[in-house]
Design brief:
Blueprint: H1 23-29, E1 47-51, H2 58-68, E2 73-75, E3 78-80, E4 85-89, H3 93-103, E5 109-113, H4 123-139, E6 144-148, H5 150-153, H6 162-176, E7 181-186, H7 204-208, E8 211-217, E9 227-234, E10 242-247, E11 254-255, H8 270-278, H9 285-290, H10 301-313, E12 318-320, E13 330-332, H11 348-370
Parallel strand pairs: 1-7, 1-8, 4-5, 4-6, 6-7
Antiparallel strand pairs: 2-3, 8-9, 9-10, 10-11, 12-13
């Protein structure tokens, strides 16, 4: 039987062209640099994911930031630019009306509340929403688009299916390319995850966005402590790796507690603090015992584990891993991340920068001992 010669061409994708760029071409092809909207966290044309447990303060923090964006200034110790904000929210009109009255949120902020009337949208409805936002931006440009919360507004199963989630995020990225920053508020998984992987559902979200912010309570969520710790993972050196903020007593602003500037000191065990404050990698229990000071009696594993757990409860020690032989717990001090080895797979320039930071720390310690 003769097979038509044109049959194969019907299965091929439509042709497209590519235009490779040399280093000298990149500056002309890239958009002009713009200042941060919230320094280190929100930038024009970039996507930021904000991960935090439900009812732990995501919307509380965001709404205070919106209020500050009316005129710009400082928020949580970082500079804020004046900005026009569009919020797509799962919350009701009455909830946002109460916040606007309390915080004097001005006309620089607009709201789209429950666009799908409390139901999960279809794929077509989701893409229609993004198209409407794009058209609105063309008519009345906004500087920041906020989606709060992402999971409740996505089509069914998109949160747990990487290809579908990427299909939903790509048009948001296309909208961001037109100028606005995009802030995606999201919930964390219940499982223990590694650094920068706290987002619920598929891990595609963390890989897709430019900046990941993970916020948790400094103390237990049920306590009255108003402090929150934000750990961030970013493509940009301006992003703070860690920031501790505290909601003021009147609930209208966030401050940076002075006692939390720099790595917190562990009071439960000064020897553990000494080991971790000198470490250049995240240490297992065995690693901590290996570097235990000779001037102090080495504790048994159970005593050391209790000390580490107490430090974690108090927010003075961080931990990664799942606790079995293939992925043991590893511990480090908050704020010490820039001095921890980035891994053998890291680019050479990143490893060189890490070595330079470690050398600078060693010089500072030596000068301190010499009393200069």
């Amino acid at each position: 039987m003769h097979t038509p010669t044109h049959t194969l061409t019907h299965t091929l994708p439509k042709p497209f062209t590519i235009q490779p760029l040399r280093p000298s071409d990149l500056a002309n092809a890239a958009p002009a640099h713009k200042d941060w909207l919230w320094h280190g966290y929100l930038a024009p044309a970039k996507l930021t994911a904000f991960i935090s447990p439900p009812k732990s303060g995501k919307t509380t923090l965001a709404s205070r930031l919106f209020s500050r964006m009316a005129d710009g200034g400082q928020f949580a110790g970082l500079s804020v630019a004046p900005a026009r904000v569009l919020v797509v929210s799962e919350e009701s009109v009455s909830d946002w009306d109460a916040r606007c009255r309390q915080l004097a949120i001005g006309p620089n902020v607009q709201f789209v509340c429950r666009p799908f009337q409390g139901a999960r949208p279809t794929d077509a409805q989701w893409f229609a929403l993004i198209a409407e936002l794009e058209a609105l931006h063309a008519r009345e440009p906004f500087d920041l688009l906020v989606i709060d919360a992402l999971a409740t507004l996505l089509p069914g199963y998109a949160e747990t299916c990487a290809p579908k989630l990427l299909d939903c995020l790509l048009p948001i990225q296309a909208l961001a390319n037109q100028g606005p920053a995009v802030w995606l508020l999201h919930h964390p998984t219940k499982k223990k995850q590694g650094d920068g992987q706290a987002a619920r559902g598929t891990g595609a979200l963390a890989g897709f966005v430019d900046i990941v912010m993970e916020m948790r309570c400094v103390c237990r969520a049920r306590s009255k402590d108003r402090r929150r710790r934000i750990c961030a993972y970013s493509r940009y050196v301006e992003t703070p790796r860690q920031l501790v903020v505290e909601l003021t007593a009147d609930g209208k602003d966030y401050t940076v507690p002075t006692e939390n500037v720099g790595p917190p000191r562990l009071q439960a065990c000064v020897e553990v603090d000494h080991v971790l404050s000198h470490a250049h990698e995240k240490l297992t229990v065995e690693g901590i015992l290996e570097w235990w000071p000779d001037t102090s009696k080495t504790p048994d594993r159970s005593t050391l584990s209790r000390c580490l757990n107490r430090g974690m409860r108090e927010g003075q020690i961080l931990r990664t891993g799942v606790g079995h032989s293939g992925d043991p717990y590893r511990y480090w001090l908050p704020g010490r991340e820039p001095l921890l080895f980035p891994g053998y797979g890291a680019p050479a320039d990143e490893i060189d920068a890490w070595k330079a930071r470690c050398s600078a720390e060693a010089r500072e310690r030596l000068l301190g001992k010499l009393g200069t």
